[in-house]
Amino acid sequence: MWKRDESVKPSTGRETPQPAGPGVQSGAAAGHGPDADTRRHVESRDVVNIGKSVVIKGELNGSEDLTVEGYVDGTIELKEHVLTIGPHGRIKAEIFAKAVVVLGKVTGNVTASEKVDIRDNGSVDGNIVAPRVAIAEGAHFRGSVDMQHKSEPVKPADPPKAEVKPAANAPAPNGPKL
Predict the structure, then answer these.
(1) pLDDT in tens, 67-91
(2) Is residue 131 part of a domain?
(3) Strand 123-125 relative to strand 105-107: parallel, antiparallel, unpaired?
(4) Assigned domain for 153 exists
(5) Is 102 within the bounds of a domain?
(6) pTM for this prediction
């Protein structure tokens, strides 16, 4: 039978690996085993949630992954993070993020450096710019898609080079010399 050592109380909300009482050492308390792996995975991703009743008007910037279930009107900028619009989320904004997952409704242009994923019942009315785009069956999309990679700059196509050789008997291009 396992017994929790009540003398070890985490102050940051995270369990710190400390040895339990004599002769008792659980895998979780030692920082080993499946519980410790799950905890490390959860702690490595900071995710912020905006609830259904929250309304935001203006500019929204962040340095964490964000899930929106409420209403946002303005601009959302999460350049290095994932934005998830939940099933109840309603967005009327320009979006700039690393990846965007749409389960709710977005009205506005979406720019992602990695991927835009419109899931079942998700809706996007606006243009999408991302190297990868996935639109599930049952999703709604109205706009244009630009799947250009950022590492490939736009350059005009070079016309085909044709070799032009002057004929041996032809006069010089500026006319005959006198």
Answers:
(1) 999 999 999 999 999 999 999 999 9
(2) yes
(3) parallel
(4) no
(5) yes
(6) 0.61
